[in-house]
Design a protein that fits this description.
Layout lengths: L9 H4 L26 H9 L15 H6 L6 E5 L3 E5 L2 E6 L2 E6 L15 H21 L7 E3 L10 E3 L7 E4 L7 E4 L1 E5 L10 E6 L12 E7 L8 E10 L10 E8 L8 E6 L1 H10 L15 E8 L7 E8 L10 E11 L25 E4 L2 E3 L20 E4 L3 E2 L8 E3 L15 E3 L3 E5 L3 E6 L29 E6 L24 E5 L4 E3 L19 E3 L5 E3 L20 E5 L4 E3 L2 E3 L2 E2 L13 E4 L3 E5 L28
Parallel strand pairs: 6-11, 28-30, 32-36
Antiparallel strand pairs: 1-2, 2-3, 3-4, 5-6, 7-17, 8-11, 9-10, 10-17, 11-16, 12-15, 12-17, 13-14, 13-16, 18-19, 19-20, 20-21, 22-23, 24-25, 25-26, 27-28, 27-31, 29-30, 31-32, 33-34, 35-36
């Protein structure tokens, strides 16, 4: 037979079982009953009449009745060494670091003919059964004194929870501690390599050439959740110890580390960051190549891959850490990326980091007696000069157009210039070859009834690459294009007599598709739903929470929480104005007060419109990170018809 000690081929695990029981078993009786070592306790207990206390389920089964009668019953048996084997009827499946093997153990006892490809349905069923077995074992394993990985296995698995001693300690999950990781796609947990030739322990295996889950795509992800995040520590390092086998490969640099930001009581992540690492592997393969190396184990070596990040909100209390890949193009059996450990540790604030400046927070408060009232909450600050209203407000004088909340703010300061980036389209529809600075990206004029905003709709912060040819998001085919938008914001908003809030799918048409408001950088707000009506668009957005429409208009579906947005908000006071809905009411950032998100305010809760009222600001909206409807839930005021479609009539 094939195999040797510590393997799971039959030559390593199959042994005869001889029973001598005079007067009980007839001499010469043969049984084809499959028996494993964990069956000995219940079987021998039954043979000797010793009762077993049912304090905990046993792995084994009482097979004494079958043995003494020479009968056999169908059962499923799992054998675990460095690799796994699962038996069912005449089938035996082996799962190892090199892949999946399937044998008809009755017709082929020497295990020479691998049928995994020709009998893929059988192999898939046994892989599923083995996965459920491993989940059951992981669920029953004891915790460790340093860290505990727990997971709830049900019809919709919850992510594992990682608990550690203190926030100052580095969290290290390695080897068997990674058994509780949440796995999706072509990923498995198991022995890394062959222990007969090297000692790598157990860990995560990302398979770039093996469609492990049978979905005809080579992609997968392994994740853990860490609760080891505190408001005092905002900077962290996530790193993995990984080895890319010689045949591991992905297209489009699509091997990545990802961090999702979570908050207790909220569904889904509030934001995420992601960095690709395959280019580093390619570079190391070239830079570290040594023709004198013994290649019996391959050229691959263990390396650390890391990303540093800052939590976008002080209220972030946990993070989901993932290592994953997509667009696998690996070749051969040595085509995996192994992860031996996943680590999280707090780090000092980087020396080169400059805290984002919130222009309107540092805005000096003017003498109210010197201001020129423009109507509603709008004012002009002459700053010691002429009180004649300027022809327009642009990047040269944007700090003179003020909005009154609990204090005077200059909401457009720092937001009226942008860049027409290479790869965007210009106003004529031509693809831009070279970055072009647009100082007049936003220009404002004041009329009797309106603040009139003329905008090129160019984001003044990083974006994803569009068209999304590599499907890093959803394959969005549109470009970001320069526009010539004009928006009319009523200086004195009129409250709607019969306001309508969106239902869960906006089936009542409370908000139209397309623009519903505009941010202070001139980029438009959309409702939460994408062009596929009734489909929440949040998952489709780039890191700064926007993407282009089919008409190539970049827009936000939620609050841009990434660090480099112009609206830095550390949550130390009520947020500033970040934009306006087309009914003229202001949209504020996420905070109601120091450390209090507006969505969590119990004293003055937001209504279904994402709106509440106070004496300093009047009725106003708040964005709600991670919570529907994200920006506004409907118009509390009457939308100005100059901006296009309003709400649907009842």
């Amino acid at each position: 037979m094939r195999g040797q000690k510590r393997q799971v081929y039959d030559g390593a695990i199959r042994v005869p079982c001889v029973i001598y029981a005079p007067g009980v078993i007839k001499p010469g009786t043969e049984s084809y009953q499959m028996v494993a070592i964990h069956d000995l306790l219940p079987t021998l207990a039954a043979a000797t009449g010793v009762p077993l206390k049912a304090t905990k389920p046993l792995d084994g089964q009482n097979l004494w009745p079958n043995l003494i009668r020479g009968e056999a019953e169908t059962r499923r048996v799992v054998i675990a060494e460095e690799e796994f084997a699962i038996f069912q009827d005449n089938w035996k499946l082996i799962e190892s670091a090199t892949g999946i093997e399937l044998y008809d153990i009755i017709a082929d006892p020497s295990e020479q003919h691998d049928l995994a490809d020709s009998r893929s349905q059988v192999a898939t069923a046994l892989v599923d059964a083995l996965t459920k077995y491993k989940q059951k074992v992981a669920r029953d394993q004891p915790s460790t004194p340093v860290a505990e990985v727990a997971r709830t296995f049900d019809s919709k698995p919850s992510p594992p929870k990682l608990l550690t001693r203190s926030a100052a300690d580095t969290v290290v999950l390695e080897g068997s501690l990674l058994a509780g990781a949440e796995l999706q796609g072509d990923v498995a947990y198991g022995v890394l390599g062959n222990r007969l030739t090297e000692s790598n322990g157990k860990g995560i295996r990302l398979m770039s050439a093996d469609d492990h889950d049978g979905d005809k795509q080579l992609a997968g992800e392994a994740s853990i959740v860490s609760n080891d995040i505190t408001p005092q520590n905002r900077w962290y390092r996530f790193d993995v110890l990984g080895l890319a086998q010689d045949g591991f490969a992905v297209d489009k640099d699509n091997l990545y580390l990802k961090v999702e930001f979570l908050q207790k009581g909220q569904n889904g992540s509030l934001d995420f960051i992601k960095t690709r690492i395959f280019s580093q592997i390619v570079r190391e393969r070239n830079d570290f190549k040594d023709d004198g190396t013994n290649e019996s184990l391959g050229r691959a070596t263990w390396r650390t891959y890391a990303m540093d990040f800052r939590t976008p909100f002080a209220e972030i209390d946990s993070v989901k850490l993932s290592v994953g890949f997509a667009d696998g193009i690996g070749e051969g059996k040595q085509s995996e990326f192994w992860v031996n450990s996943m680590n999280l540790s707090p780090i000092p604030v980087p020396a080169e980091y400059k805290a984002p400046v919130n222009a309107h927070r540092q805005f000096p408060q003017p003498d109210p007696n010197t201001l020129v009232a423009l109507g509603g909450r709008w004012y002009f600050d002459p700053q010691g000069g002429s009180k004649k209203l300027p022809r327009q407000f642009d990047y040269t004088n944007c700090d003179q157009l003020l909005y009154k909340s609990d204090r005077f703010e200059a909401p457009f300061a720092g937001n009226m210039s942008s860049w027409l980036r290479a790869g965007y389209k210009n106003l004529a529809g031509d693809i831009v070859e070279k970055d072009e600075y647009k100082p007049d990206a936003v220009v404002i004029t004041v009329t009797k009834d309106h603040i009139v905003m003329q905008s090129r709709n160019l984001p003044n912060h990083p974006t994803a690459t569009f068209p999304d040819k590599w499907r890093m998001l959803d394959g969005n085919p549109s470009y970001i294009q320069e526009k010539a938008n004009t928006w009319y914001l009523p200086k004195e908003p009129q409250l709607a007599a019969d306001p309508i809030a969106m239902d869960a799918k906006n089936s009542n048409g409370a908000l139209p598709m397309g623009p519903i408001g505009v941010a202070t950088n001139g980029v438009i707000f959309f409702n939460p739903f994408d062009h596929i009506f009734e489909t929440d668009a949040v998952w489709r957005l780039d890191r700064c929470c926007g993407h282009p429409s089919p008409q190539s208009a970049y827009h936000y579906h939620k609050y841009p929480v990434c660090v480099k947005t112009p609206w830095s908000d550390e949550g130390e006071m009520h947020s500033s104005v970040i934009g306006f809905a087309f009914d003229g009411l202001p949209v504020y950032g996420p905070y109601e007060a120091d450390g209090l998100l507006a969505k969590d305010d119990k004293q003055n809760p937001l209504n279904a419109f994402n709106l509440h009222e106070d004496k300093d600001r009047g009725p106003h909206y708040h964005v709600t990170p991670g919570k529907f409807p994200h920006i506004i839930g409907g118009y509390w005021g009457e939308p100005d018809p100059k901006n296009g479609r309003g709400r649907r009539a009842r």
